[in-house]
Amino acid sequence: MSKNQKSIFFLLIFPLTLYLGIRSANHIKNLIEAQKTVSQTHQSINDLKNKNRLLRDSLSFIESKDFLDQEAHEKFGLGGENDTLLNLPQSSSDSKFDYFYPSEENVPPPSNLSLWIDLFFYE
Predict the structure, then answer these.
(1) Is 105 exposed, middle or buried (0-12, 13-18, 19+ CB in 10 A)?
(2) H-helix or E-strand containing 104?
(3) Does residue 85 belong to any structural domain of this protein?
(4) Nearest to 118 by CA among 110, 106, 102
């Protein structure tokens, strides 16, 4: 082969090789992006499966008798089979607790002098 034939051969092979290399790199990049998308989709599917499992568990609890008993007890004050009802006497106005917790009608209003003292010295 002469020098002229080698340069023509090089001019034909080099661009073809460069073109095939660039296309291969693009295909590899597309494959990597597709793999990332597939892995994200798998993660999303696993998250949705876990959420579905939690929702099924809570649905089965809501449909159970235990949930109905709990809600009846909390919302309506209904007792269960083993609950005991205590009847406490009504407190009277002369109860021994009135000394510690006086009602508002039994407390006299503060005097004007004590209000002035509170204003200037305690605030």
Answers:
(1) exposed
(2) none
(3) no
(4) 110
pTM: 0.46
Locate all alpha helices (DSSP H) within 1-123, ordered by sequence: 3-62, 65-76, 112-121
Would you say residue 86 lies in a domain? no
The pLDDT tens digits for 38-97 are 999 999 999 999 999 999 999 999 999 888 888 887 887 777 677 777 777 766 555 555
Structure token pair of residue 25:
């790199």
**Largest Cα–Cα separation, the chain:** 127
Q: What angle do CA 11, 12, 13 make, to 5 degrees?
A: 100
Query: What's the structural domain count of the chain?
Result: 1
User: Residue 31 is part of which domain span?
Assistant: 3-79+93-121
Return the amino acid letter for 117: I
